[in-house]
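Data deposition worksheet. Section B asks for the primary sequence of the deposited chain exactly as it was used as input, without tags or linkers unless they were present during the calculation. Section C holds the resulting structure in C-alpha cell form. Section D is free text for depositor observations; keep each observation to a single sentence. Incomplete worksheets are returned to the depositor.
Section A, Depositor: J.P.
Section B:
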Amino acid sequence: MSSSVGERRRPSSWWPFVAIWGGAALFVVIGFAVTVVALNATVYSAGGFARGYLDAIDRGDTASALTLAGIEPTGDLEDALLTVPSLGGLADVHEERELDLGDGTRAVTLSYTLDGTPGQSQFVVQQAGTRFGFFRAWSFAQSPTATLDVTPMNDPRFTVDGRLVTTESGDVATRFEVLAPSRFVLSHESAYLEAPTVGVTVISAGGTSSASVATVARASFSQVLQEQLDTMLDTDCVTQPVLLPAGCPFGRQVDDRVTGEPAWSIVAYPQVAVQPGTVSGQWLVTEAAGTAHLVVDAQSLFDGRRYAIDEDVPFTVSYTMSIGTDDVLTFQQ
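Section C:
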C-alpha cells in the first residue's frame, strides 16, 4: 500500500558506508599527496640525489656510484681508478645550500667530514623526468669526478688500495679520473721494490689532486744481488786458472813468463748497494771495492830468475739493471 501524501522518506541504509569509505579514500589521497610532496622534498630532491651518490661512495659501492654519475668506465688507463672503492670515512653529511640555476638545473652544496677532515663539494644536477610518475628523478649535469695525477717514482707500477696499476713510464705523472670525493692509499709492493704508503684525498668535483709514490729498492734486493755477486765470484771467476778471468771484474797482467797455473781467491767481497739510475726504470749497483788474491809462479824474461807472485789484487764492480713489470731482472753492461 502506498504511503500517504506528506509522509517523510526514511534515509537509505547504505549512506553511512558511502560517507565512511569516501572519507577514508579522501584521507588516503591527501596522505599520498603529502607523502609525494615530502619525498620530493627529501629523498627525491636534488640534495637527496647528491647525498645518495655520496652514500654509495662511502660504502664502497662503486657500481652504484658510477650508475648515479652516469659514467661507464672504459679499458683506458685513465679510467683505472674509477672502479677502485674509496676508503670511505664520510660523516656528518648535510646540505649547505641548493641554488636553482634555471631550466631544471640546481647546484647542491654538501658539507661533510672525510676521515675527520672537514670538506665541502658542489654538485650540479638536473631534473631527468620522474619515477613512477610522481617522484622526481635527477642526473648530474656536470660529472661528479675529479682528476688525480699520480707519479710513480723509479718504476711504472703502483698499488691503490691493494690494486696494481701499471703506467706507461715511471717518473712521469699519469692523470686518472676518480669519483669525488674519495680517499685512497697509494703504495708499491713487488719482489724487489717497495714504497711507503701515501694517503690522498680528492674533494672537489672538477678539481685536480696529485701524489707521488716514492719507490725504492727493498733491503732484500741488495741481499739477492749480493748473493748473486758472491756466487759469481766464487764459482765463475776464482775457478778460472788464468790471469784475466773472462767476464770477471778482476785480473792481472804479467810481463814475464808464467810457469805455473794461476790460483785466485777472494779476500774481500764488494758490498752491494742499489739506488735508482739516471734513467727511469733502471737501477744501479754503485761502485763497490773488493779484493782478490793471486798466487802464480813466473820467470823473468830478462835474467831467467824464477819467482812467485803472491799478492792482493784490488777491483771494483758497478753495473745497471732494469726490472720488468713481471719482476724479471735484466743486467746491462
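Section D:
The first strand starts at residue 90 and ends at 102.
The mean pLDDT is 87.
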